[in-house]
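Open question from group meeting: does this chain pack into something compact, or does most of it stay loose? Before anyone orders reagents, we agreed to write out a predicted structure and look at it together. Recording both the input and the output here so the notebook holds the full record.
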Amino acid sequence: MCEGREPANFRELPFPGTPLILNFGAPWRVEDTVLESFLAGLHTRPTAVSGGREFSCLELRLTPLGTRHLLGRPLHELVDQSVPLEELLPGVERLTTRLSDTPRWEARFDLVESFLGRRLADSPPPPRELDWAWRQLVRSGGRIRVRELAVELRWSPRRLIDRFRDHVGLPPKAAARVIRFDRAVAALRSGTPRIAEVAAACGYADQPHLTREIRALAGVTPVELVGGNSIQDTAGATA
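C-alpha cells returned:
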C-alpha cells in the first residue's frame, strides 16, 4: 500500500516481477503517459514514475508466471510496457471504486484477494515445467545456463525460449540478466563495501561488467545507485 500528501518522484528499476497498481488517488505519470491503475511487464530499462499530491494506491508485485496465470495472455506483449489495468482485467474499475470507498486497509485487502481469487480460478495455472525452470533461474541468481534448463526438461533450447517469452515475457537469457541485476542492487544497497565483491558474487565477469550493466539497466552510475534517494528499491516478487 502507498499513501502520501506530497508529490512522489522515483525511478523504478528492472526486477524479476511485474508490479500491479490499483489506484484510488491522484493519477500516476509513467514516463510520458498518465495512468490510473496499471500493470507493468518485465522491464529491461529504468522507468521514471511520478505521483501527484494526495496519492493513494495498492501495489502488488507478482511473479511473471503469476501474472500470466492472472491475465491469460502472452507476457512478451507487455515487456517494457505499462498498460492501463482496465485493458487487461475486465471489471477492475468496479474494484478500484470499491477500494476508494472503503476506508480500512484490511477491508481493501479482502476485496483485492477476492477479486484476484475469482480471476485465477477461471484461468489454467502455468505449466509445471515452466514453474520449475523459473524457480531454478531465480534460485541460481540468474547464473544457470539456458542449455542446462533445456536438458533437464528434455526440451530444445528453442522450445524453452518460446515458452519463456509466453509465460515470463523475456527469453531465459534476458530474464537471467534482470535477476542478476536485482541481486547485485540488493547486495550493493545492503552495505557490501566493494563493487568488485558484488560483481564476483553475482556472476559478472568483473567490476567493469557490473558497472556497464548498472548504467544500462538503471541509467545511473554505481555510486548514484547506492546513494541516490530518487531510485526505487528493487524487491523480488512474492506472488
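Observations to bring back to the group:
The mean pLDDT is 90.
The first strand starts at residue 2 and ends at 4.
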